[in-house]
Amino acid sequence: MEKQDCFLLGTIFKLHGYKGDVNIYNDNDILLVYTDIEFFYIEDNNELIPYFAESVRPKKKQVLLVKLEDVDSEEQALKILKRKVYLPNKFLPEIKNINPDKLIVGFDVIDNTLGRIGIVNFVNDKTSQKLIVVRDGKKEFFIPFHDNFVININLKKKILEVNIPQELIDIN
């Protein structure tokens, strides 16, 4: 499975007990149907390795308690600790149910008239107007996260479609 066919769910941040159970932090607070999850992809050396799930249940608001097949000891669980966890795109809910701020990091930014203008570096929500920080090579600029500028967020293709004037890019 390729990364473009998946989305980042979160990170294995903690072990649970000594029998190989792990806690996965759901970085984007994505609402999932846990009974549908049969496996997770865990990143290892920039490759996605499938791990079948014996059980998945919510532990806290953004934490999943997971028992993976073939991970039966603390030693085996330590090998996957701090690794990123992915799921196939078919598990993505509709955009209205997700806070897209963290989810769009790494998306290509495509302007209707200018074409590809960069990649989303992060979303700054500490300002009065939420700003999308876009990086194009060494240059960084800001786009207001507003309906006047953000046209569409395509989760499957990992594209943020925008419509911004060239002057807005140049003033940054």
In short:
This protein is mainly beta. It contains 3 helices and 12 strands; from the N terminus they run E-E-E-E-E-H-E-H-E-E-E-E-E-E-H. It has 2 domains: 3-95, RimM (Elongation Factor Tu (Ef-tu), domain 3), CATH 2.40.30.60; 100-171, SH3 type barrels (Roll).
What does this structure look like?
There is one protein chain. With 172 residues, the chain is mainly β. The protein has two domains: 3-95, Beta Barrel (Elongation Factor Tu (Ef-tu), domain 3); 100-171, Roll (SH3 type barrels). Helices cover 9% and strands 48% of the residues. The protein is built from three helices and twelve strands, in the order βββββαβαββββββα. The protein has a six-stranded antiparallel barrel with strand order 1-2-5-4-3-6. A six-stranded mixed β-sheet has the order 10-9-8-7-12-11. Strand 8 and strand 9 form a beta hairpin. The longest helix has 6 residues, at 166-171. It is elongated, with a radius of gyration of 18 Å.
- Could you give a short account of the major beta sheet? 6 strands, antiparallel, barrel
Task: Please give the alpha-carbon distance between the first and last residues.
Answer: 38 Å
Would you identify the regions where 5 or more consecutive residues have pLDDT less than 50? none
Helix count equals 3
Summarize the amount of helix as a percent range.
under 10%
What is the total number of structural domains?
A: 2
Strand order of the largest sheet: 1-2-5-4-3-6
The helix/strand series, from N terminus to C terminus, equals: EEEEEHEHEEEEEEH
Mean pLDDT, as a whole number? Answer: 87
Q: Work out the number of β strands.
A: 12
CATH superfamily of the largest domain: RimM
In CATH, the topology of the largest domain is named Elongation Factor Tu (Ef-tu), domain 3
Strand content: over 45%
CATH architecture of the largest domain: Beta Barrel
User: What top-tier CATH class of the largest domain fits best?
Assistant: Mainly Beta
